[in-house]
Amino acid sequence: MTPPPGTAPAPDPTGPDEADRAMEQLMRFLAILRRRWLVVAVMTVLALAGAAIAITALQPRWRASATVVLHLGGPQVLDKVKNVTEDTESRLLAYKEYYQTQREIIGSRTVAERALATLGLAQDPVFLGIADIGSEAERVARAAEVDPIERLRGMVFVEEVRGSRVLKISADYPDPQIAADIANALAEAYLAHVDASRARTGDAAKANVETERAKALAALQQAEKALSDFKQQHGISSISLADRQNVITEAIIKTTANLKDAEAESFAAGAVHEEAERLHKAGSIAGASLLPPLERRVFEDMRAEELEAEREVEQLAVKYGDKMPELQQAKKRLRVIQGRIAREEKELLAGLKARANAARKTEARLRSSLDDEKEKALGLTLLERQYRELEREAKAAAEAYELVSKRDTEIEMLGRMQSEDIEILDRATKGRAPVFPPKALLVAVALVSGLTLGALLALGVDVRDNRIRGLLDLERALAGLGLPVLGQLPLLPADARIGVSNLRAQRRQRDLHTLLFPQSLMAERVRGVRTSLGFAAGKDGLRTLVVTSPNSGEGKSSTAVNLAMSFVQAKKRVVLIDADMRRPRLHQVFEPPIGREADGLARVLAGKCTLDEALITGGDVPEGMSLLLCGEIPQNPSELLESPQTRKLLAELGERFDLVVLDTPPVLPVSDPLILARMADGVVVVARCQATTRAGLQRALATLRRSEANLLGVILNEVDARREEAGYGAGYYSYHADPKAAAPQI
C-alpha cells in the first residue's frame, strides 16, 4: 500500500537481517582464512613453483604477423546466370560469411602446401618436432608419421582486426626469423591461390558465356524464322495482327448497326403492305394514307379529280336527264378516272409488296455479311494465340542473346584488367620477445589458482575441524542445551623472564596469574566468570562448586585455582580441594608441608587423618584461602567418593567456608566427577580453545545432566586475544578488556 504523502516508507525488516547474515558469513570466511593462512600460503607457493617450473621447461616461441586487406571489390561475372559465378561471391554474401570463407581458405591444406613448398621446411627436424630424438632410426620413423602440412597449419592462426577488413596471419615458431618467413609465405600463398582461382573462374566463365551466346543466337534465329513464316502463311505482312483485328471489329460493329436498321425497315415495309392489302380487300381507299408524302399527294389528286367528276355527273343528271350527251360524256370521264384509280391501287399494293421484299432481302444480306465478319474475327483470334507465342519466343530469345552478349563483353573487358581486391598490407617482421610461454599470465593464473585452491582447502580443513575455535563455536555447541558461556580466559604467552623451556614454572605462573597480576586481562576475565557464577547461582547462593572438563589437559585445574583466588580477592573464605585422585596436580602449584605430603583428601575420607591435619594454610596459599590436596593416591577413588564420609566432609567444609571449590577429574574418562557433581551446588565445565571438540563437550554435558548435576555453564579457556573480535561483532562474540577502563568486579 502506498504511504500517505509526507510519510517516509517503512524500512524493510528483512533487509538488515540479510545484510547482517551476509556480513557474518564474510567475517567467518575471513576468520577461517586467517586461522588457516598457512594452508593458503603453502598452496599459493606450490602453484607459483609449478608456474616457475613450467616457464623454465617450456620451449620459447616467437610470433610474427602479416596483415591482408579484403577490399570486397572482386569481379562480378553473370551473378544471375546458372553455372557461372565468382568464387568470392562478394556481392552475394554478407561480410561475415565472406570473412569466414577467406579465413578457411587461408587455413586450408591447399594454401599451406603452397606455402610449405616455398619455405622448404618439410624435412627440417625442428619444424617436424624431432630434433630432440637422439636415435637416427627413431627420428626417421617419427618423421614418417608427421604430416608437414598439418604441422604448418598448427603453427598458424588467422584473426580479424576488429572494426576493419584486415586479416592478421600469425605464426608461432622457436626461431623468430622463421616465424616471420612462415607468416609471409602463407600470405603470399593465399594471394597466389586467389589469383589462380580468379583466373580459372574467368576462363570457365568466358567459355560458358560463349557457349550460351551461340545457343542464344541459334534460338533467336529460329524464333524469328518461325514468326516470319507464320506471317507469310496468314498474310500478316503489311499490317500487324492487331490492326487487322481492329478493322474486323469495326466492320462487325458497322454491319451490326446496318442490320438493325434493315430489320426495322423490313418490319415497317411488311406492316405497311399488310395493312394496305387489308384495306383494299375491305373496299377502302384509306390505304393511300400509308404511302410516302409524294406518292400520297398524287393519289389524293386523282381522288379529288374523281370527286369532281362524280359531282359533275350528278349535276348533269339532275339538270338534263340520263340521255343527254353531256351526261354520257361526264359518266365516261368518271369511269376513266375510277379505272385509273383502281390501277393505281393495284400498283400501290404491288409497290408496297416490292418494298417489303426488298427490305427482307437487305436484312438477309446484312445478316449473312455479319456472320462472315464474325467468322473472320474467330479465325483471327485462333491465329492470335499462335502469333503471340511466336512473338514472345522471339522477344525472349532476343533478350537472352542481348544479356549474354553484354556479359561476354564484360568478361572480355575484365579479363584485360587486374582487380586488386586482396592485397598484403604489412609483411611480417622478426619478433623481439617470445610470446610463449606467457610468463605474466602463468604467474597470474598460478597465483589465483593457488589462492583459490588454498581457500577451498582451508575451508575443507576448517569444516572437518570439530574443535571449538572460539566463542561462536562454543555458543553453537551449547545452543540446544540452554547453558550460558560464563566467560573466556585468555591464552597467556610464555614469560621469557623465567625461561621459555621451564614448562613447570610457566604452568605455575599461569595457575597463580590472578594472584600475581591482579590487574591483568586474565584477572579481569576471572572476575567476570566470578560475577557470572553469582548470577547463575541465584538467590540460594553458591557454597560448593565442581570444576571439571570433558578430557584431560583442558585447563580445569588452572581455572579452579584462579577462580578460587578471585573469590579470595572478593573477601570470601574459600577452600580449594584437589578431588582428582587419579592424576592430582595442585601439589605442583602449592608445595605441601614437609612430612605431610601424604595427608590429603584420600586419607581424610579413609579416616586415616583429620580434616584439620589435611588442610593447608599459609605459606604459598593466599590469605583467606585453604587448600586440601589429594595426598596419597588411593586404589579405590570412586568408592571413597561415594562413601558417606564425602557428604559429611563437604557439609563440614560448607559450614567452615564461604565457598568450596573442587578440582575433579575429566568427565569422559572416569565417573568421579559425576559422583561429586550430584553433591555440589553447581558444576562448571572448562573447554579449551583449539583443543576441545564440540562432540566431546556435548557428550560431557549430556553425561553430567544424566547424573542430575546442576550445570551452571561453560568456561572457554586459553582464547588467543589476538583472534578475538572487538565487541559483539560478526566474528567471535567477545570483548577486549581495556586496562584503563576495566575495574575489578567485587
TrEMBL record:
Reactions this protein catalyses: L-tyrosyl-[protein] + ATP = O-phospho-L-tyrosyl-[protein] + ADP + H(+)
AAA domain span: 546-706
Domain called Tyrosine-protein kinase G-rich: residue spans: 386-459
CDD domains hit by this protein: BY-kinase
Listed GO MF terms: ATP binding; identical protein binding; non-membrane spanning protein tyrosine kinase activity
Species of origin: Nannocystis exedens
Coiled coil: 206-233, 299-407
Gene3D superfamilies, sorted: P-loop containing nucleotide triphosphate hydrolases
Family: Belongs to the etk/wzc family.
Keywords: ATP-binding, Cell inner membrane, Cell membrane, Coiled coil, Kinase, Membrane, Nucleotide-binding, Transferase, Transmembrane, Transmembrane helix, Tyrosine-protein kinase
One GO cellular component, as annotated: plasma membrane
All residue ranges annotated as the Polysaccharide chain length determinant N-terminal domain in the record: 26-118
Bilayer disposition of the protein: Multi-pass membrane protein
Chain ranges passing through the membrane: 37-58
Protein EC: 2.7.10.2
InterPro entries: AAA_dom (IPR025669), Bact_polysacc_biosynth/exp (IPR050445), GNVR (IPR032807), LPS_length_determ_N (IPR003856), P-loop_NTPase (IPR027417), Wzc-like_C (IPR005702)
Record carries keyword Cell inner membrane: yes
Record's subcellular location: Cell inner membrane
Name under which the protein is recorded: non-specific protein-tyrosine kinase
First-listed, main subcellular location of the protein, grouped into a coarse class: membrane
